[in-house]
């Protein structure tokens, strides 16, 4: 397959599964709102919420990867990100109160890896399918990782606010991307029906 055909296939696959990206964005915003509304909640509770979010997010990405593989489209990035999210969710659940500093580094590693995967995926997406939104979402993840690692002790104190703000911003970018992909998908379906 030539690079342009691969780009078309990945863009079409994302457009068809726009609702999975919207679901991911909605869960991120919900998680962020809970983190901001209940700042007095213990970090243990935050770990459990984060773990649940990561599991749902990972399953969502794996479903998208399976759908892409069924259509013989590129699915590696989705599967890798989904698997990483599930592993991080399980690890966060298993060690909630014993290693809060490790949790900071775990979140930073997750944000860095998934951010890098999203930036890489953005270069494989057509500009009119929302390349910049996906890239900005990935850059936000990378910046979030850097902020966590820069001061882990302070991160423990303000983790709730950082996580909430990040999750809401990330979710908003994913919703914008999802609805942009939806409009491309609807336009493509209309064009195919009229042909």
Automatic annotation (TrEMBL):
Q: Name one GO cellular component term.
A: plasma membrane
InterPro entries in the record, alphabetically? Acid_resist_chaperone_HdeD, DUF308_memb
State the UniProt keywords alphabetically.
Membrane, Transmembrane, Transmembrane helix
Which spans are transmembrane here? Answer: 18-37, 43-63, 75-94, 100-120, 132-150, 156-179
Residues spanning the signal sequence: none
Q: Specify the protein name.
A: Membrane protein
